[in-house]
Amino acid sequence: MAYIFFPPLGMRYPASVISSVHFPRFGAWRLTIPLVLGLALAAATAVAAPKAAAPSASDRHASDRYRRVLEEGVANGAYDGVAVGLIDGKDRKTWFFGKQHDAPNERSAFEIGAVTDVFTGILLAQAVLDGKVRLTDPIGGLLPAEFPWADPEFAATPIVALATQTSGLPATPANLFSLDPDDAYADYAETDLLAFLANYRPGARKREYAYSPLNGALLCVLLGKLYDNGCSTLLIGKVLDPLGLPKTGFGDPVELRQGHAYGREARHWHFKKALAGAAGLRSTLQDLLVFLGHNLHPDDSALRGALLLARQARADAGDGGLGLGWTVHDVEAGRQTWPLIWRASRTGGFSTFVGFRSDRQQALVLLASSAEDLASLGVAWLMGEAPPPVPAAHFVPDAARLASYAGLYRLLDHTEVIVSDGGATLRMQVRGQPAWPLFAVAEDAFVTQGGAVGLSFIRNIDEFSGLVLRTNGTYVSGERLSARAPRLQRTTIALTAATLAAYAGDYRLDADTLLRVSVSGEGLDAQLSGAARSAMRAYATDRFADAEGQNGLIFERDEHGRIVAVVLDLAGGERKATPANWRVP
Predict the structure, then answer these.
(1) Which pick of 54, 128, 315, 372 has the fewest CB atoms within 10 Å?
(2) CA-to-CA distance for 103 and 485, rounded, in angstroms?
(3) Alpha-carbon span 476 to 411, nearest angstrom
(4) Closest CA to 244 of 177, 311, 182, 292
(5) What is the pLDDT of residues 235-258, one digit of tens each?
(6) What is the pTM of this model?
(7) Helix, strand or coil, per DSSP, at residue 281
């Protein structure tokens, strides 16, 4: 599955295991990866479907080779700390890996990101059993009849499509203008989500598997309305409490570990409002083992019917089936076929895997306070297959050396790439795209958040003469045109508060992307959907630029002097936006 590539401005990035939603900071601008919840957050089909396998009994009980991956990963710094729980028949084992004096323990709490979808899926299953809703009911029927849907056809989407990530919703809502780009969804409220629905027109977007945190978010909000309760309260009362999970919830307990990514501390992500049902939960190893125990023995659970209903595959994701929040792979064991049921997620600083096999009465929990992938290891462990390689150690470059990489590069396809020193990190910007931060993975090698786009610099003795760009599985080389990133110096001018206020407003670039312009001090702030704000100062009437001179705004007026459009300039690539008539229900 694609994670990041160079799409046209305004396209959204499908999340892989964030993979669940990553929200990297792209220099002055930042586009969203879902979560990534990346929410960067989680795709149900992040690893290939398991192949048929029938390992011996000794293989099934031999955990050393899988634990060794974690031990070596912690030793080389790829993992910060990992908690492991294994149920194997009547045996239950736990292991904890980490640095001395800072290893996790049974009380440690972790962000579990899009694994939250599993609990929201169980909530939907229980609502079906309660007679509140049918899986085929249209989502439009769950809101008041007077709700102003922008697209009646989308209102006819069956509610099951939200639970199986097949609704076609984009990874980022057009009206996401976060106050803190490192915690992008923290302030996105239910009223914002409903306003998005009142203006959303999917167009020709196909209803096939594509992860979006909006699916779980909308599902939980709609279920809350059915039960006349809030999403978080409903999940706790209808799912978490009946399953006996007292340490699983939406707050930040004192036991919540510090997350890490690329050898650095990472901010916690919060989804307490509209996104609670998609990626908001924190949990512990013991709670998740109890949860998987209920799934292995549903007859002993108060939610037996909901647990069984949620695990049934109802949609196809190319290399696996999709239940209500779960990934379902059929595997052969002997002469029978049994489901391997699992879900994985990565947030900005955490990684999670939960999975089980009822045929072997096995279940596995992997929790890491770092964003390294655990899905491949988790599936291999439950399959009894060879584990994936130990993740590479994080490489931390000398900060003083970063400036030596900066410059203007031209690829063989004539695309220009600007590399600039952002202080603690490098940034790269392609014409027409925002600037992306780069993280070092080896000497002279950098990647974007998630690792799908990379730059390798070509050294000629003690100087850099070019680079190789890797994106979407292809490699393109380029030469260095200058040893300094281009910068256009402009003299700023002062404008009155009334003049600045006339520019403020929302402008539409395309169906999924808005540009918000607001007054900030003596200039303007410009912010794309799901992006950080960028400070702009006027250098001429109707013309603004950032401090580096690489990005700017040019306002256009009609014959009456009214603003009718704004041209967004990103390193020489221009896109026009027109005033948005955003409806608020």
Answers:
(1) 54
(2) 43
(3) 7
(4) 292
(5) 999 999 999 999 999 999 999 999
(6) 0.87
(7) coil
